[in-house]
Write a structure and sequence with these properties.
Layout lengths: L6 E4 L5 E6 L5 H10 L2 H8 L8 H7 L7 E8 L2 E10 L5 E8 L8 H15 L4 E7 L3 H9 L3 E6 L2 E7 L13
Parallel strand pairs: 5-6
Antiparallel strand pairs: 1-2, 2-3, 3-4, 4-5, 6-8, 7-8
């Protein structure tokens, strides 16, 4: 399990990406990555139309990592290609999960690497479950979570809440190539 960050990994299409922590100096990278998202990807990630990141969102998304919030990003060279984060909820053993991958880097194993990495960090901090609010049409995220054993615990209109047990299937090592 990778809990040492940064690290480099090679995806299914042989592209190497660096996984590293996100911090306050990365506002421009988050904005750059957001601009590369299709309107459909923005809709799926934010559960509705979202034309730009607000200053408050940039503040939250680039807050320093601590025991209540942890964020990582994937870089291909100097370009941001994905972010993933968790934020602890009222129950200190449960955290909300979010993953965003720009369209050109979807379906090549990056989501698995990001989720697996976040899970390892979360487990080390005593977190046992991730919750994710997922648009019902977001097949990619639903499939990613299901791959690691997540179950749907609630459905409300077009949104599903899924729970992932971090001591379950996701605890197994990832193969070298995502």
């Amino acid at each position: 399990m990778r809990t040492t960050i940064p690290f480099e990994t090679t995806l299914k299409n042989s592209i190497a990406v660096q996984i590293r922590a996100i911090g306050p100096d990365d506002r421009h990278l988050l904005s750059e990555g957001f601009e590369k998202l299709s309107s459909e990807s923005r809709y799926m990630r934010f559960l509705g139309a979202h034309s730009s990141l607000t200053e408050a969102e940039l503040d939250a998304f680039t807050a320093p990592n601590n025991l209540d919030h942890f964020a990582i990003g994937a870089m291909h060279g100097p370009h941001p290609v994905a972010t993933a984060r968790f934020a602890v909820l009222n129950d200190p053993q449960t955290a909300e999960l979010a993953i965003t991958i720009i369209d050109d880097y979807q379906a090549i194993g990056l989501g698995k690497v990001l989720l697996h990495t976040l899970a390892a960090v979360a487990r080390a901090q005593g977190i046992t479950d991730f919750l994710a609010l997922v648009h019902s049409e977001n097949r990619s995220m639903r499939n990613l979570l299901a791959h690691f054993g997540a179950t749907r615990i609630r459905m409300d209109g077009s949104e599903q809440e899924m729970r992932l047990d971090l001591n379950g299937k996701i605890n197994a090592p990832l193969p070298d190539a995502a």
